[in-house]
């Protein structure tokens, strides 16, 4: 058991503050500033912010005007100006480092971005009923607000414990667009991590259930295609047009016709299509935003190669040109059973935990796989931990919410696992 009971009320208050002011990927300005404020209150040995925690190219960036709009929103909301100066341009996120003597170097990854969707206004929706519904038009519809609260709770609990070693908490931006993990992995802060825990709340597991090692991550690649044709009057000169929407429609139909692969699961989806200006104008431009996934990185690449061929052929078929760009990409990964075993062992003694699963398959994608592989490639161990929570709506829906009791459970499980590690060096 943890040396002391986790003080839950401040963490619930933090979670609700973060829920009230959610920010999408690469726009987490007020969010990062709030996290930094909490880390400084706790007191750590090193704190890195913004550009200090990111290296290489950031993927899936919004345009500069969008970034600037959210930056000014954070200023208007009263976010700390000194912290904001380190985040300007969309360089969001932070790494907190706690050094407590000799011992292993442990990483804990929590994600911080919200989804660009509206939140329910129903009186049956707890955030709306209790006054912490989103005020920004975005929404923490996947529990990242609770993840941050757990990260702060673990940081404080470990500092006050007998843990000997180094703890690094990675507050990672841009998970929802598969954009933040790679530049954080390449920053160097992860190079000496021997054990890495990544966490997620919910995942269709109830409050009181803990999944010690989530696996089955599908590798993913976002694909953006822009078709260019030529406009014409649809009634008077239809023969003079080159219809970009027709090319995009042919591409969509044939994307879903890519043969499945004998070696494992594959996925494709055209999630957003835009194009055209009026019913009587042959469209000169259309765009598709989609994704491909695979049970392994190789299967994802198989899908991406075939998707490129299909899209190019559709453009040729309708005498259009097309530009294909790859957005966020994340590999597949598996949790290490040896580290998952530590979670399972300590979870048995945490109050409120009544079910422990050694392993479960996610069936989706997560860019934490970059961080996991980075540690595993250097001889360390990594596991992705599921902290169950009762949620009335599904992930990414307008009615998603978390059972705040799960925050305490998450803090205690992770703190106890970190304290158990010095006797289990890889």
Compose a concise summary of this entry.
This protein is of the alpha/beta class and 426 residues long. It is 33% helix and 21% strand.
List the SSEs and their pairings:
Elements: H1 8-20, H2 29-42, E1 46-49, H3 64-76, H4 81-87, E2 94-100, E3 105-111, H5 126-129, H6 144-159, E4 165-172, H7 181-185, E5 195-201, E6 209-211, E7 214-215, E8 219-228, H8 244-255, E9 266-275, E10 285-294, H9 297-317, E11 321-330, H10 337-347, E12 355-357, E13 360-361, H11 368-377, E14 381-387, H12 405-420
Parallel strand pairs: 3-4, 3-5, 5-14, 6-12, 7-13
Antiparallel strand pairs: 1-2, 2-4, 6-14, 8-10, 8-11, 9-10
Helix pairs in contact: 1-6, 2-6, 6-12, 8-9, 10-12
Which structural class matches the secondary elements?
Answer: alpha/beta
| Overall mean pLDDT | 95
Could you tell me the number of beta strands?
14
- Helix fraction? 25-40%
C-alpha-based Rg, rounded: 23 Å
Main beta-sheet annotation: 8 strands, mixed
- SSE pattern: HHEHHEEHHEHEEEEHEEHEHEEHEH
CATH class call of the largest domain: Alpha Beta
Spatial separation of the terminal alpha carbons = 23 Å
**Unreliable stretches, pLDDT < 50, 5 or more residues?**
none
Question: What would you say this structure looks like, in words?
Answer:
The protein is an alpha/beta fold. The protein has two domains: 8-217 and 333-424, Zn peptidases (Aminopeptidase, 3-Layer(aba) Sandwich), CATH 3.40.630.10; 219-329, Alpha-Beta Plaits, CATH 3.30.70.360. 33% of the residues lie in helices and 21% in strands. The strands form three sheets. The chain has an eight-stranded mixed β-sheet. Strands 9-10-8-11 form a four-stranded antiparallel β-sheet. The protein is globular. The model has no long low-confidence stretch (mean pLDDT 95).
